[in-house]
Amino acid sequence: MNQQAVMEVGQKFPLTIKRLGINGEGVGFFKRNVVFVKGALPGEEVTAQVTNISRNFAEASVLNIRKASPYRQEAPCPVYEECGGCQLQHMTYEGQLNEKRDIVMQALEKYVRNVAETTDVRPTLGMENPWNYRNKSQFQVRQEGKRVYAGLFAEGSNKLLNINDCLVQQEVTSKVTVATRKALQKLNIPIYDGKTLSGLVRTIVVRTGVRTGETQVCLVTTRNELPKKEELLERIRKVDPSIVSITQNVNRSKTSLIFGEETFTLWGKDTIHEELGELAFDLSSRAFFQLNPIQTVHLYDEIKKAAELTGNESVVDAYCGVGTIGLWLAKDAKEIRGMDIIAESIDDAKANAKAHGIEHARYFTGKAEDWFGRWHKSGYVPDVVTVDPPRTGLDDRFIQSVLQVKPKRFVYTSCNPSTLAKDLQQLTKIYDVEYIQPVDMFPHTAHVEAVCKLVLKQ
To answer: How many distinct helices (H) and strands (E) make up the chain?
Structure first.
């Protein structure tokens, strides 16, 4: 029976929420049709009202909660409902960790039921303090009358929410953003207008070194000139003693991308210094770095555990980015080879290896599957392969080459349980899944990472 026959927009009905969806919404079933309900939690009984009908599912809002989840709480953030940056603040942290493990289980049950039935999916590794963890904020700047706002756009709209204190940001990033916004307002510096595309300052980007306490402020502008520059710099410098670098990035394009191609230093250092475990990094304004460095250490330690290195293994770090995972493993490996399609990332990976005195790591620009095939032809078989692919998962050609080469261990770090489960359909032809360890990198959002340890079948 199709949905149009059983549901219409505006219709109200009681609904029991069975599970959490991958975007943090509650999922229930009405006459065997899937209904996604924003703000509802598993185990709740609600009165739902249909807001939208698609071919394979319907969306609904909560009219009232007839039976609440024991994990339900009042979201502490004042703009939580509007913002959309977080999806799970209305759920206790213990509840979030349970549900994130369940999201991994659901993906396995959908795509690889046999794996779901036999695999040890461990409890989600959470944070001791799941607040103020993000080391970087990118807040858009707009003006209404004389007031300058900095914040995020309300979900699905072009209304900018002025955010003074974002609860998932490191506190210094909020403090610096607010003070910079006020300085722009006080000095009457032209602010970008999203409708007319005129004006100057588009975005305030602030990143702080969690371990080193160094902070960088980057103003993204539509052109090079910056009126009242010296006065503005003096005001920003005084905001917090942690500020060691102020930069300007010029983005002339009309896209929603944050950064343009040109960046120059206005005051202080070009980079800030940050440390992860024993590794150290110098980060420029546009450099990629993990947003939650505290949990990144736990994630990388889980990868190291799964790799089971003894000092004699050759390791391939596919989709290596700036090389952090390979460098994390290097001390216990005989050789590291990494590859990535982004040339700048490979340059950074080489520089990072050199800076740490790691001479047995080599990096190559290009597709993982191309290099893997090339090395295999020359007789090279790595003992361990580690991957941390984008949300789309592994390239099918890469999976085929892994099935041919047959490394002893395969460590799959995933940021999308659905694509992990789909890729396991193929990988489990020659591998057993020893365990999956979910890791919570982004508390209060629906994201879940997982480290999956695969061992070659005997």
So the answer is: 12, 22
Clarify whether residues 358 and 444 are in a common domain.
yes
The Cα–Cα gap between 28 and 25 comes to 10
Contacts of 449 (CB under 8 A, 6+ apart): 299, 413, 414, 415, 438, 439, 440, 441
> For 226-247, how does the pLDDT look when each residue is reduced to its tens digit (9 = 90+)?
999 999 999 999 999 999 999 9
Flag whether 240 is marked binding: no
Each residue of 25-57: pLDDT tens digit? 999 999 989 999 999 999 999 999 999 999 899
**pLDDT at position 342, please?**
92
With CA atoms as reference, report the closest residue to 272 among 174, 441, 135.
135
| 302 and 426 co-located in one domain | yes
162 and 59 within one domain? no
Q: Which residues are catalytic?
A: 415
pLDDT at 178 over 90: yes
- Residue 189's SS3 state is coil
The answer to whether the CB of 313 falls within 8 A of the CB of 333 is yes
* Tens digits of residue pLDDT in 403-437: 999 999 999 999 999 999 999 999 999 999 999 99
Helix %, strand %, coil % of the chain (to 5): 25, 30, 40
Q: Are 414 and 452 in contact (CB under 8 A)?
A: yes
Instruction: Specify the 3-state DSSP secondary structure of 418.
Output: helix
Q: Check residue 432 and give its pLDDT.
A: 98
Q: Tell me: the pLDDT tens digits for 292-342? A: 999 999 999 999 999 999 999 999 999 999 999 999 999 999 999 999 999
Spatial distance between the Cα atoms of 121 and 269, rounded to a whole number of angstroms: 45
> Model pTM?
0.94
Terminal-to-terminal C-alpha distance of the chain? 47
- Residue 84 belongs to some domain of the structure: no
Cα 248 from Cα 2, distance rounded (Å): 54
Q: How far apart are CA 283 and CA 362, in angstroms?
A: 21
Q: Count the domains in the chain.
A: 3
Report residue 161 as tokens. 């929410």
Is 290 within any annotated ligand binding site?
yes
Whether residue 245 is found in the same domain as residue 380 = no
**Dist. CA 366–CA 289, nearest whole Å:** 21
Q: What is the pLDDT of residue 256?
A: 87
368-393 pLDDT per residue, tens:
999 999 999 999 999 999 999 999 99
Q: Would you say 340 is a known binding-site residue?
A: yes
Give me the domain span that covers residue 391.
97-128+292-456
3-state secondary structure of 446: coil
Do residues 327 and 351 touch, judged by C-beta distance below 8 A? no
